[in-house]
Amino acid sequence: MTQPAIAEGVLAWTPARGPAPAAGSAGQLLVADSWLLREGRVRGFDRHRERFLGACAECGGGSPRRLVAFWQDMTAALPRTGAWFPRVELAAGTLELRLLLRHAPPLGSAVRVWATGQPDPRTVPRRKGPDLDTLAGVRGRAAGEGADEAVLVGPSGVVREGATSSLLWWEDDTLCLPPPRLPVLPGVTTGLIQDRARRSGIRIAHRERTVDELEGREVWLVNALHGIRPVTEWTGRPMKAAPAVRAAEWRTWLDELMEPLPGD
Prior knowledge:
By secondary structure, the protein is α+β, with helices and mostly antiparallel strands. The chain contains 5 helices and 17 strands. It has helices at 45-58, 64-77, 132-144, 188-199, 247-255, and strands at residues 9-14, 18-21, 29-34, 37-38, 41-42, 83-84, 87-91, 97-101, 111-119, 149-153, 159-162, 166-171, 174-177, 204-206, 219-223, 227-235, 259-260. It has an 8-stranded mixed sheet with strand order 11-10-9-16-15-12-13-14. Strands 2-1-8-7-3 form a 5-stranded antiparallel sheet. Strand 15 (219-223) and strand 16 form a beta hairpin. Helix 1 (45-58) packs antiparallel against helix 2. The radius of gyration is 19 Å and the shape is globular. It starts with 8 loop residues before the first strand and ends with a strand.
């Protein structure tokens, strides 16, 4: 597919004209979703579609026909060259659907994590969008401690996830993650990893752990942008990170899941 040069910016969508440069700012985000787009290829695109359209429907974001039409037009408008980190949005008030085009930031292969668990400040933890600004503040505080990410914890200190990432770890040969009854975002990348583990016969367990109990374990923070990032350093407290003996092979597998956008 040949496209003209595409610049960063916000495109507001209407059924009549499709995505077009937005005239003003949107209201508070009700729903958002984002993914890595590299040379027109993405992983788990159907899962992002399902999560975003389902969340929009729950928020009264329009009929299924309207939401599907937006997704189709949005997909056609995505760049087919370069590295991008697009975000789709549903705004409160007008229920406007938007596409935010932005270049992908530098990708990381490892992550430093603030070892002091942060109380989970989210108001809608199972839906991406409403709490993005609040979580950006948490990450900002982590950066002040020399870290890339922070771990959100519940009142009892049990870990939930990172500010912008899902949390997984290994206990011997068992892949572990927080129990689904906890208020965590259903991560697309986490779902892909769990599917591979099941196909490979790897045991998966949902366990409650504090940050302290992650010391000496191989811990991963995963999301749609960076993929799998093993924790190589805990900052702010004398915690040791385990060697990331599994991460490289799983990162290679995850990169190979990148597929062309539908219709290309």
